[in-house]
Specification:
Acyl_CoA_acyltransferase; Aminopeptidase; 45% helix; GNAT_dom; GNAT family N-acetyltransferase; acyltransferase activity, transferring groups other than amino-acyl groups
Length: 233
Amino acid sequence: MENQNIIIRVATPADKIYSEIITNEMEASAKARGTGIAKRSPEYVSQKMDEGKAVIAVTEDGTWVGFCYIETWSHGGYVANSGLIVSPAFRKSGVAKGIKKRIFDLSREKYPDAKIFGLTTGLAVMKINSELGYEPVTYSELTQDEAFWAGCKSCVNYDILMSKDRKNCLCTAMLYDPKDHYKPEETKEYFEKKSKVYERLLQFKQSRFLNRLKRLQNGTSRFKSMLTHFFNF
């Protein structure tokens, strides 16, 4: 694998041959992590390719490597770079960073005035985002478009999101505001200083907190107390 040249480019309609393998890998990856993005169909991914709102990575011989796509909300005021996925055979090769950089640049080209945001449970994605100039934010700074939040219904953590009136969840929110942002060098440096803190919080969210959620009934006073203690930390 290391000797294969990987091409990262804007996806075209001809890339729809990869749509099913992309969505299958998205679903498998979400199940393996115990968390998940909104489930997408091959038809939805194909539509993004038709619209020129996706980035794909392939080898020179046509092997699929990775993918990510653009979604817009609030009449184009917010942009999300969603569905980042890399084939298991090519993970830890740096390709995810390359895809994120290309989809970020594509978003800036198509929507220069839009705020670009993302939700992630992964420390690696947080690191990549920080290198692009994203900053951790509260959920209140994200789009409030109902269509966006409806997309979370297929995530296994949807009950957590709704229990906090969409104010927080296991995912970390990050935002790039073209009109008010730090330089990428600054956000990268800040992340590096705080990476251990983020790592501990993510581990807490994904293990202890989630396990308690599965054992407790929604609405109990103990459950509400846990949410308040954690999210006001």
